[in-house]
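Reference record
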Amino acid sequence: MITVRPKKSLGQHFLKDNAIAERIADTLDKFSEFPVLEVGPGTGVLTRFLIEKEKDLTVVELDRDSVAYLKQNMPSLKDRIIEDDFLQLDLSKLYTDKFCIIGNYPYNISSQIFFKVLDYKNMIPCCSGMIQREVAQRLAASPGNKTYGILSVLIQAWYDIEYLFTVDENAFIPPPKVKSAVVRLTRNDREKMNCNEKLFKTVVKTSFNRRRKMLRNSVKPLLPENSDVLSHEIFTKRPEQLSITQFEELTNMLEPYIVTTQQTKDSN
């Protein structure tokens, strides 16, 4: 019998509460027509419930011990296990149409997982699972909240976020030092940004790099000196006060100046 021990290097905390695992599996019930990719199944506590629901299921797992355990204990899944790093996968080679993502995500890469989901946002109608509670709070935060930041804006631009429930530390082996939470991201109806999408990301990230400062100070690295655009009222706000729509407006406002600045740099 293969034994799998949680590895700190992989951020592993194995869920042991079957009731919670079943509730997580239930988060995809509204999306039953789509195949499912589970990230980091570990010992398969969540996987079992996904199999019971007769999901068109594939799992991706980096840990060799977990892969061996799953092959031994879940033979029906044997040919649907991808031994690889999810963050390095080209998901368009796995799926040609829409699919959902679920998992008890390693805490040390959960934000990176959601940013990867964004790369495939038109293929992923729903992404759900368990993460560190503080990350879940950032995902779901609204403008004006102290946890509202880069992750909130960039993910909420494309997904509706539901903070579903909190999970106690004792539901895991070993217990993490923080509480966890289950969230569900559902693709919204946005087809494109009302601004340059690449620049939008840059403006959001630059703004929150100095989140305690007014925007007139935090966006200065993007602008030429003494730019007259900074006289606009929006620059008296702090980044956490801006909605997604306002960040789009800010991006459009800054774009002519940023282009001019880049052209000047290129000519020197």
Notes: The first strand starts at residue 14 and ends at 15.
